[in-house]
Amino acid sequence: MKKCLFIFLLITCVSYAQEEHAWIYFKDKPNVQEALNNPSTILSSKAIQRKSLRGTPIDEKDVPVNEEYISIIKSQESISVKAKSKWMNCVHVIGDLETISKLSNLEFVSEIEFANKNLNSRASIVNKKLKNKLETNIDYNYGLAANQTEMLNTHYLHENDYTGDGITIAVMDGGFSNVTTIGAFERLRSNGKLLGGFDFPNRSTNYNNPELSNHGTLVLSNMAGFIENQFAGTAPDAAYYLFITEIGPTETPVEETYWVEAAERADSLGVDLINTSLGYTLFDNPDYSYDPEDMDGETSFISRGANIATEKGLLVVTSAGNRGDENYFKIVGAPADANVLSVGAVDGDRNYAFFSSLGPSSDGRVKPEVAAQGLEVVAIDQFNNLVRVNGTSFSSPILAGSVASFWQANPSLSNLEVMQLVKEASSLYSNPNSRLGYGIPNFRDVFSNLLDNVSFP
């Protein structure tokens, strides 16, 4: 009996030693927008009153964890689900190391964090997923948009299945004519990635009003557009909110406030990245206009709002401006002067585009930070036609979509970490200048630098 008891205890100890605690994080939650529109379905009235009293936003963290995901985790052999957290969007499991590690193959799992940090750090889990991704090969036909995409080596990310999936982008612009009907965005709509939008000046949900500007439609196409064998944007699988903040016929300071209001909305909706192909320097009323020395990242209302957006964890990508060929206001506009990733323009041969606004900021910071093609860019208009357009309005979304596709590789990176990795992998990083800043990013190098900073187990 004693010998048998000893054997039993030995087996028990071995089994116990193999059990590990881990948190399994999920990529998303179900019906987030529906829940946010009806907070009483997820929070008590007292909780809603308390949040209202103290100015605390009700956001995605308040939405419960997806029960279907939990059921799938529970169905895995040798896995025990012990608890869940809606704030962290994860479950706590116990199981053996090998079985838990295999959960990373489930498409809705974003990462795994072991309680025993010596066993498997967050970085090593990311690397396991990177290895698996690099075994895939998706062939996108960019058509006439090939040069603007391949200049940044964004196609390398797409070939390895990093296309912005899991990243949410808010686009601030002047109008999104026909985005809910034209074929270029059918893939976006059918995949449930067009999350909605709002027209802030008109207080309307009719963000695709065909009577408004088509500028946002063109901008969005550089990120999300897709026409099979003819065109693919730089983040075709990201999710998008479309916010109108610009009033086309006029230029007044209230547009800055609409922009900040939209940024606040984006933050409350859990957006990761903002693209804004807008800039403010001179207004219809000269008394409201800025001077070049005001471009210090602190003076304009919109730039102060952009700084807060960055503090909140949003990555703001914005056009540098199109005043580089002017005599008076060559400097980047607001909010490009803020703590954001501002984007200048080059032509198809990687040369500075004559109109791209110049740096540095008035307080001496490198501006623009980076550059992408902005001259003779291919985009899709409101009638589903491929057209050529010019401006930093288009270098910004090309770059923003590329950033989103990269960020998918490791969404645990902070906005500032992503910005730094992008700058470090740019062509002029060691010797920035006033035209292109740190230069043209190479997203293959950005990706390689990410791999270099983590170790495979």
Short description:
The chain is of the alpha/beta class and 457 residues long.
- Tally the helices: 15
Strand content is 15-25%
- Our measurement of the CA-to-CA distance between the termini, rounded to an integer number of angstroms, reads 43 Å
Sequence stretches where pLDDT stays below 50 over 5 or more residues: 1-17, 120-137
What is the chains' assembly state? single chain
The structural class is alpha/beta
What's the count of strands? 15
Overall mean pLDDT stands at 87
Share of helix, binned: 25-40%
- Shape descriptor reads globular
The profile of the biggest β sheet is: 7 strands, parallel
User: What Rg, in angstroms, do the CA atoms define?
Assistant: 24 Å
Query: What is the spatial order of strands in the main beta sheet?
Result: 6-9-5-10-11-12-13
Element order, helices and strands? HEHHHEEHEHHHEHEHEEEHEHEEEEEHHH
Task: Identify the notable features of this structure and list them briefly.
457 residues, alpha/beta, 15 helices, globular, disordered N terminus
